[in-house]
């Protein structure tokens, strides 16, 4: 029976190992998480297969023959077996706990020399602030092979920060600061995903994470700084892509989200007052087919007067003209 269990276990373990369940790791921390993940997976698959294999074999092999109405033989326990099935799981569970603790501590260790980026979640967009450069962007950009501490907060409800290729995942909670350490090891564009159900636009709450070379990162910071320094309609466009584009479609900004109304339709021909009111008091007038209280009513506070003016100017210039 044990041989059958071991054979099935080996076969199932191959299924677990050979299928690519997770995207390729792209951070130092991801490798540590993967080690734990595979260790636990293999332990679980082998135990499941041994138990299930022995059970199925026993049902087949020791089936009562037709016409046999005798009682089964009386069995009053087996001390050796009971000790074995207590001690083996105890050893395995202890090993999983210790190994996870050690790898997690390594993954969350804050390196002496690291960059800090402030990450803020709100319904339904992420924003990233680079304190040294005094830049805020809707994109997360990191230089490759350098440890970064992401300090997470949320403005309204609980969100959760996750980039699958980096594995590290943590809640962004209003009122407190949590942190994620990540050292990206692959260049490219990844996706920041919100993994905490946070409202109607949850599924659309994504942002780009760019891993760049050191020189590319510095160029990116300068470009973002210039975009933020621009006034009027140009600044409005930057704000729109950072804060509005995950929910609203607008041809000029190239966004197609459908959580909220298509602005090319609902703002076409409207004046500045209507646009401003729609941003600061979104429940005053609800477009047909949409629900009240989906769009946060907090933009009047979170945007400065000057940012609001730029956004209104941009929407006035572009909505319905795409
Ligand atoms: Cu934010 Cu889901």
Entry keywords:
five-stranded mixed sheet; binds dinuclear copper ion; 44% helix; 322 residues; alpha+beta
Write a structural description.
With 322 residues, the protein is of the alpha+beta class. 44% of the residues lie in helices and 18% in strands. A 5-stranded mixed β-sheet has the order 3-2-1-5-8. Strands 4-10-9-6-7 form a 5-stranded mixed β-sheet. The chain has a two-stranded antiparallel ribbon with strand order 11-12. The chain is elongated and about 90 Å long. The termini are far apart. The structure holds dinuclear copper ion. Dinuclear copper ion binds at residues 121, 124, 159, 194, 196-198, 202, 205.
Bound small-molecule species:
dinuclear copper ion
Radius of gyration: 28 Å
Please describe the biggest sheet, giving its number of strands, its sense, and whether it closes into a barrel. Answer: 5 strands, mixed
Number of strands: 12
For the largest sheet, list the strands in their spatial order: 3-2-1-5-8
Q: Count the helices. How many?
A: 9
Unreliable stretches, pLDDT < 50, 5 or more residues? none
Strand content: 15-25%
What is the helix fraction of residues, given as a range?
40-55%
If you average the pLDDT, what whole number results? 88
- Give me the secondary-structure category: alpha+beta
Distance between the termini: 70 Å
Shape type = elongated
H and E string: HHHEEEEEEEEEEHHEEHHHH
Summarize the structure.
This protein is 44% helix and 18% strand. It has helices spanning 2-18, 28-61, 79-108, 214-229, 232-244, 263-266, 272-280, 299-302, 305-318; strands at residues 115-122, 125-130, 135-137, 140-143, 148-154, 159-162, 169-172, 178-182, 188-194, 206-212, 249-250, 255-256.
């Amino acid at each position: 029976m044990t041989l059958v269990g071991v054979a099935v276990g080996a076969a199932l373990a191959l299924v677990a190992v050979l299928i690519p369940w997770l995207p390729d790791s792209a951070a130092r921390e991801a490798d540590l998480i993967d080690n734990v993940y595979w260790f636990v997976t293999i332990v679980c698959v082998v135990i499941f297969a041994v138990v299930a294999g022995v059970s199925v074999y026993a049902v087949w092999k020791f089936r009562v023959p037709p016409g046999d109405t005798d009682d089964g033989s009386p069995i009053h326990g087996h001390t050796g077996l009971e000790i074995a099935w207590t001690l083996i799981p105890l050893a395995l569970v202890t090993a999983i706990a210790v190994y996870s603790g050690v790898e997690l501590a390594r993954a969350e260790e804050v390196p002496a020399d690291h960059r800090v980026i402030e990450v803020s979640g709100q319904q339904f967009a992420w924003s990233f602030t680079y304190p040294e450069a005094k830049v805020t962007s809707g994109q997360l950009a990191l230089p490759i092979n350098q440890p970064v501490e992401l300090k997470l907060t949320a403005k309204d409800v609980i969100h959760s920060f996750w980039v699958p290729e980096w594995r590290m995942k943590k809640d962004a909670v209003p009122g407190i600061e949590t942190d994620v350490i990540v050292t990206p090891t692959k260049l490219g564009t990844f996706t920041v995903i919100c993994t905490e159900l946070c409202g109607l636009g949850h599924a659309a709450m994504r942002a780009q994470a760019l891993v760049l070379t050191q020189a590319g990162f510095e160029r990116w910071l300068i470009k973002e700084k210039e975009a933020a320094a621009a006034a009027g309609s140009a600044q409005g466009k930057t704000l729109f892509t950072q804060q509005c584009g995950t929910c609203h479609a607008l041809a000029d900004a190239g966004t197609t989200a459908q959580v909220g109304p298509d602005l090319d339709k609902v703002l076409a021909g409207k004046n500045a007052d209507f646009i401003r009111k729609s941003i600061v008091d979104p429940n005053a007038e609800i477009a047909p087919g949409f629900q009240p209280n989906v769009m946060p009513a907090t933009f009047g506070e979170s945007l400065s007067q000057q940012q609001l003016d730029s956004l209104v100017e941009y929407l006035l210039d572009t909505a319905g003209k795409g």
